Amino acid sequence: MDEYQIVNSFNMFMISNAMYQLGVFILLWITFRWVRTIYSNGAELIEKILCTIFGLGTVFNGLMISGFFYANWQGTSYALSQLDSLSPTAQSFVDYLPVDTLPEVSLIPWNPVMIVWWLGVIVAILYPIWVKKTS
Predict the structure, then answer these.
(1) Does the pLDDT value for residue 58 go beyond 70?
(2) N or C: the chain end with fewer CB closer than 10 Å?
(3) Which spans in the chain are helix H?
């Protein structure tokens, strides 16, 4: 592959990744609506369990999309670094994210802010479901 094909492939992946991420955000919105209903009106144990499974499944999908994004970003940098000559733009891409080996997908976010954000989402889902409403 040449530089154009690598960058084009990366850009096409970014479009599909954005569409999947939008789907995750829609699922999160549905989850939070469900959680709000449970917190406001109460629910049977089975509904709490189903909402928990749905919410944690949504978080799992979000973490997978994040992992695929970072692995593709690293893979693009690695593929570009293997070429003999690069344009200045491609060289700055490689310099920004230097990668020596082929990347692997991980569910653990690479960015500490994302770790805190996803932990906050998990707490925001589980706390209203499983902690009794006061007053």
Answers:
(1) yes
(2) C
(3) 3-41, 45-81, 88-96, 112-130
